[in-house]
Design goal:
29 helices; 702 residues; elongated
């Protein structure tokens, strides 16, 4: 019955769907339903080919006509579609948040090419702003102890004045996500602060503002991260220690478990600096910790943390130094310290974090280019310093043209700069000597190399044998260098009072190494005059460190024997004076106080025999005077007569004085006698009065 019923004809609009149903209702082949090979697959008809299956030919024709019209309209729309509009894309980009829109590389290159035509336009500034943000973020995220010296020049190559807000935000975000790298980020900020103080001040201002907000909101994580960053900025000298003390007072004023825990972590980082620079304040902080511990109002875990902190303090922060190894990159005199307190009205400058159109963009970029050239110098020298051949060709000073004399000292400055860069870029002293020997130094300028080696040595935080070995090698290569180092010793000894203690120590140890290794002659000791009048405190400290360095290298016995060498004794006469007992005593006391009493034996023996020698010298002088007076009497009669008259007059005057003295002495004796007699009379009178008084009392008693 069902088989006899005819299937209904498909409707006009369902021809294609019906065909698909029939195709899908077919049974699959027994091959497992796998698709036929690629060369046997049917290809889809082209868009221009219009074919519709329909039982009614009139309806089929009408449907094909309508489909063809629709396809033609689509092709026309595709042809009339506008091309890439850079202005419209820029409008979308400027209206969106920075970095919030992904842009394909091809589209980005097209935008850059269109914007490069006008570099002062807002579109070009927006593209450079996005590139600056990506570059700063990438540099900050890949810095570490090993590559910080290489990363810093790349960071200065970017416009940090324009992107200081981006830098501050990036470094604070990176530090909060990786606390163990906080010393590295603090060292980076310290280096940038020496050249661009406004950047360092902005970072410190935002950190203090963030600490205040997090403390008010009880955000322990952010507060701990921010306080750690501020602690390391204090260690680097970017922030003043008053900020650290204010933070500790705030955290310990009303102690809670979280505030005391943050204070303990903060104190472990900054405690070594405070103990060295503010010992009284440091002791006050630990007294407050002790009071909190005795109160017992905090958790046992936090109490244990305070006890551990006291142990760290007792061990003198051996695991928490002020500056970790490899991050002491800034000299103290170059650092700029910002005195910002917690109570100040802070300007965090949030507006510079986002893009803004700059009408003076090209002028500001030119200004930063000049700043960058001052900071980094010529790019050719920086890039060529790693290659020996390139550095040698670039570092040679420019020679002046014949007939023109340079009175500005430019060549001398270039020579010193070349020597400095060569020394700093050398891995060991042998490489440094090899490079320095290839520099074209004119005759008479050898002393500049010696002075630069000594200056570089004095600039170090502690003495390095690297410089001593350079001086030793040069002195043994040629006699010229030895003479110049001896001349440098004399000049530095004369001006040693101008140097601070650390530089003085490094210079003294440098010359001590040269003398101990016999690189320069010991005749240079002739410039040292060891007496109270011709020495200063700086020169005495210099001689002390110099001799102690020599004693450490060659020993006290050898040093004493060398000073007793008779062939060089004339060079030590001013250092070990024997002409005046006062100077001899001063020299003996000085060398004994510095632990070199063994070299004073000859002076002690001389001082013991000094009275006898002085008497002999006086006798000799008297004999010489008497002989000279006899000769003068025999030479001229007139002179003798005048002298005899003068002597007779003098003798007469002496006799008169003696007679006066004799005549004046008896009255004094008479007065004394009269005084003694008057005393006896008084005593006898008092006795007679007492006797009469006693007799009267007896008579009245009767």
């Amino acid at each position: 019955m069902s088989a006899a019923v005819a299937a209904p004809a498909p409707q006009s609009g369902d021809g294609v769907a019906y065909k698909r149903k029939r195709a899908s209702s077919r049974s699959r082949s027994p091959s497992g339903g796998q698709s036929p090979p690629a060369h046997r697959r049917r290809r889809s008809p082209s868009p221009n080919a219009v074919s519709i299956t329909d039982a009614d030919p009139v309806r089929k024709k009408e449907r094909e006509r309508q489909l063809a019209i629709r396809l033609a309209e689509q092709e026309a729309e595709e042809k009339e579609k506008p091309k890439f509009d850079a202005q419209a894309e820029f409008a979308k980009l400027v209206g969106s948040r920075s970095g919030g829109v992904y842009m394909p590389p091809a589209k980005l290159r097209a935008l850059q090419a269109a914007a490069a035509q006008d570099k002062s336009s807002a579109e070009y500034q927006r593209l450079t702003w996005d590139a600056l943000k990506k570059s700063i973020t990438g540099i900050v995220n890949r810095v570490n102890i090993g590559n910080i010296k290489d990363v810093i020049p790349e960071l200065f190559a970017e416009n940090l004045v324009r992107g200081r807000g981006l830098f501050a935000r990036s470094i604070m975000k990176a530090q909060a996500s990786s606390l163990p790298f906080t010393p590295v980020f603090a060292a980076m900020v310290a280096i940038i602060n020496t050249k661009l103080p406004q950047v360092g001040e902005l970072v410190l201002t935002r950190l203090i503002s963030q600490f205040r907000r997090s403390f008010k909101r009880n955000d322990k994580v952010v507060c701990h991260a921010t306080s750690t960053f501020i602690a390391h900025l204090v260690n680097q000298g970017v922030a003043h220690e008053i900020v650290a003390l204010q933070m500790l007072v705030l955290l310990l004023e009303r102690p809670t478990d979280d505030s005391v825990e943050i204070a303990v972590g903060f104190m472990r980082e900054v405690g070594a600096f405070l103990a060295e620079n503010s010992p009284k304040a440091n002791n006050g902080v630990y007294e407050r910790f002790r009071a909190v511990l005795h109160e017992g109002s905090i958790d046992k875990r936090v109490q244990y943390m305070i006890e551990v902190l006291f142990q760290v303090w007792k061990d003198k922060y051996k695991d928490n130094p002020i500056l970790p190894e490899g991050l002491d990159l800034v000299q103290e005199e170059d650092q700029i310290t910002h005195q910002i307190s917690l109570d100040d009205d802070l300007q965090v400058q949030e507006a510079i974090n986002v893009f803004k159109f700059d009408p003076n963009y090209l002028e500001n970029e030119a200004k930063y280019q000049s700043i960058k050239s001052e900071i980094l110098g010529d790019s050719d020298e920086e890039s060529g310093s790693d290659e020996e051949t390139g550095s040698e060709s670039e570092e040679e000073p420019v020679e002046s043209k014949p007939g023109i004399e340079d009175q500005t000292g430019t060549n001398l400055v270039n020579l010193r700069r070349t020597i400095y860069l060569t020394i700093m870029n050398s891995l060991n002293f042998e490489e440094a000597v090899h490079k320095l020997s290839k520099i074209n130094i004119k005759e008479g300028q050898e002393i500049e190399l010696c002075n630069m080696v000594v200056e570089c040595c004095s600039q170090e935080r502690s003495y390095s044998t690297f410089y001593g070995l350079i001086g030793e090698r040069f002195s043994k290569l040629n006699r010229v260098w030895c003479e110049n180092f001896e001349e440098a010793f004399a000049s530095y000894y004369e001006t040693i009072h101008r140097y601070e203690t650390n530089r003085l120590r490094n210079i003294a140890r440098f010359f001590g190494h040269l003398l101990a290794s016999d690189s320069i002659s010991w005749a240079v000791f002739s410039v040292i005059k060891m007496n109270e009048d011709e020495t200063t405190s700086s020169s005495r400290i210099f001689v002390k460190i110099l001799l102690q360095e020599m004693m450490e290298e060659i020993g006290l016995k050898t040093l004493t024997e060398r000073f007793k060498d008779t062939t060089m004794a004339e060079n030590y006469t001013q250092m070990f004076p024997m002409d005046n007992p006062r100077n001899t005593r001063f020299s003996i006391n000085y060398f004994t106080s510095i632990g070199l009493g063994a070299v004073t034996e000859a002076m002690r023996e001389h001082l013991k025999n000094a009275p006898r020698l002085i008497m002999e010298q006086r006798r000799a002088q008297l004999e010489a005077e008497s002989s000279s007076s006899d000769s003068s009497d025999t030479d001229s009669d007139s002179d003798s007569e005048s002298s005899s008259d003068y002597s007779s007059d003098r003798s007469r005057s002496r006799d008169r004085r003696r007679s006066r003295r004799r005549s004046s002495t008896p009255p004094r004796n008479r007065r004394d006698r009269s005084r003694s007699m008057s005393d006896d009379d008084r005593r006898s009178r008092s006795r007679s009065r007492s006797r009469s008084y006693d007799s009267r009392r007896r008579g009245n008693g009767r």
